[in-house]
Specification:
CATH class: Alpha Beta
Order of helices and strands: EHEHEHEHEHEH
CATH architecture: 3-Layer(aba) Sandwich
Radius of gyration: 16 Å
Number of domains: 1
Largest sheet: 6 strands, parallel
Number of helices: 6
């Protein structure tokens, strides 16, 4: 039974996505929705994110939408440190504010501003220790920031009975192709 899941992956710029209305965002959100619905069948109650741009904020938007049909579904934003969005542009800060406003729980691992990379590592460790599973959207073919978390995840799984779902671009592409095909059939 999976009650809590941490959903993470690429930041938007690591996928060369710079606009919320990019077609890729629609497909990624549909994929995340599909995965969350599968987990809801397994007893999912909480989705956790650290509030990073990209996969994590899109996940929060998906959860907000899903809460209309699944009011029991909750999400938490647990950031590594206070003020992690200070250097973001105004649009992204507004988007983040909206997400935290709708969140069921918001906190920071360190109740202080950025002090060093150890804060990110500590936040990742917290996520592993406080969730039943991680859904990681990451492909070895396109290394980026999630590679450090992936290594920590693999090490953690070797020592515990923790589970993960690492989504590759092949799995995403297959889902998108199926979705496009089914959408084409409607017309």
């Amino acid at each position: 039974m999976i009650k809590t899941v941490y959903i993470t992956g690429y930041k938007s710029y690591e996928l060369n996505i710079f606009k919320d209305d990019a077609p890729e965002v629609y497909y990624l959100k549909e994929f995340i929705k599909h995965k969350i619905k599968q987990l809801l069948d397994e007893g999912l109650e909480w989705v956790l994110i650290q509030g990073q741009m990209g996969i994590e904020l899109w996940t929060a938007e998906v959860v907000i939408d899903l809460q209309q049909s699944y009011p029991e579904l909750k999400y938490a934003v647990i950031t590594p440190f206070l003020g992690h969005t200070e250097k973001w542009n105004e649009h992204n800060q507004e988007k983040y504010a909206n997400i935290t406003e709708h969140a069921d729980y918001v906190d920071s691992i360190f109740h202080a501003p950025y002090q060093g990379p150890y804060q990110f590592k500590q936040a990742d460790q917290f996520m592993l220790e406080h969730t039943d599973q991680t859904l990681l959207i990451y492909d070895e073919e396109q290394e980026a920031s999630p590679k450090f978390f992936k290594q920590m995840l693999v090490d953690f799984m070797e020592k515990t009975n923790y589970t993960c779902d690492i989504v590759t671009f092949d799995e995403l592409t297959a889902f998108i192709n199926d979705l496009q095909w089914s959408e084409d059939q409607r017309f």
